[in-house]
Amino acid sequence: MARILIFEPHADISALLELVVRRLGHEPVVVEDVFADIGGIDAAVIEPGDGNGVPLARRLYDQATPVIFTSIFPADPELLALAPVSYLVKPFSLFELEAALNAALSLPVERAAV
User: Fold this and answer.
1) Counting Cβ atoms within 10 Å, is residue 107 exposed (0-12), middle (13-18) or buried (19+)?
2) What pTM did the predictor assign?
3) Within a domain: 31
4) How far is 35 from 57, CA to CA, in rounded Å?
5) Which of 34, 9, 6, 10 is nearest to 18 (CA)?
6) Which of 2, 27, 45, 92 is most buried, taking the most CB atoms under 10 A from its CB?
7) Residue 109 pLDDT
């Protein structure tokens, strides 16, 4: 079982992300404080459109933790520079999220930060 960090400012979307993570057999770890301890995370689903999402993604990038972005906004070069496993534009299918999570968790643990 993997620990999946979820950073999503909208409660309804966050609840849906938690449900998908649980359905895949993993533990969702919901954070609201981007400065909280984020150790022991295997992958993350982050809404970068919230002002705190990008700093959190940078911290995870520095730790070589795979990140999936989910946003209503299209990707921009700053976000793509953080090498997300996937960038899903809302609305996306649950199958797309599941595939992105499976891809993130199949990356080698020693993945070097780019």
Assistant:
1) middle
2) 0.91
3) yes
4) 11
5) 6
6) 45
7) 58
Closest CA to 26 of 42, 45, 3: 3
Q: Which residues contact 90 (CB under 8 A, 6 or more apart)?
A: 13, 70, 71, 72
* Domain of residue 15, residue span: 3-105
Q: What is the pLDDT of residues 89-112, one digit of tens each?
A: 999 999 999 999 999 999 875 544
Separation of alpha carbons 19 and 23, rounded Å: 6
Tokens matching residue 21: 């993570």
Mean pLDDT of 43-51: 93
104 neighbors 85 (Cβ within 8 angstroms): yes
Residue 6 and residue 29 in contact, taking contact as beta carbons nearer than 8 Å? yes
Can you give the CATH number for the domain in which 23 is found? 3.40.50.2300
